[in-house]
Amino acid sequence: MEPPPQSPIPHDSELEQYAARTRRSLIARLHDWQDQQSWDEFYRTYWRLIYGVACKTGLKEDEAWDVVQETVLSVAKQAREHRYDPSKGSFKAWLWQITRWRINDCLRKRATASEADVDIEKLPDFDTDAFGQIWEQEWQQNIIKAATERVKMAVSPRQFQIFDYYVLRGMSSGEVRRKLGVSLAQVYLARHRVGNLLRKEIEYMKSQG
């Protein structure tokens, strides 16, 4: 079955603003749970993955944000009740299943509301390869984005800026030196240090899948 039309995904800056608002709302709903820092980190790591998958399965923006919140809340509840068993499957598969359930919940609400443009029989079967391909693609992209964000917080803003220009944006060392007023040694040091941290972070996140 062909995947549904994708909802347009806002520009990164808009997404970050929406994510921050959703995060504040979500953390407030988890206020009486332990280890808020870990849940905050979990949200920062996986919100984009969940949101992107929800949009690409045909949900509207507000529906996708609902899926983000409900998925994280479901993960938190199941973790609190010790319902995740690593011996029975990977974390990646567990999160995939919960996200799929929450997307289906959203689609059922649509159908219940009898929206004229929704035919529940024509919605994609989320057990098919189509959904699996969407999830895998978003998972791989999210690993890189989330790992980059983690590393960005672990190094100095200046060092990350050098790495961003030189490695991520592909500027020449000369361009970076002129633009930022740094030495060639600083450029190579940033590439080496930040690059190593990024590789380790990506490897770690891949191991979680």
Mean pLDDT across residues: 81
Number of helices: 8
In which range does the helix fraction lie?
Answer: over 70%
Weakly predicted, low-confidence segments: none
Structural class per helix/strand content? Answer: mainly alpha
Taken from the alpha-carbon principal axes, the silhouette is: elongated
In quaternary terms, these chains amount to: single chain
β-strand amount: under 5%
Radius of gyration: 20 Å
Tell how many strands the DSSP assignment holds: 0
CA-to-CA gap between the ends? Answer: 26 Å
Give the helices and strands as they follow along the chain.
HHHHHHHH
The largest pleated sheet is described as:
none
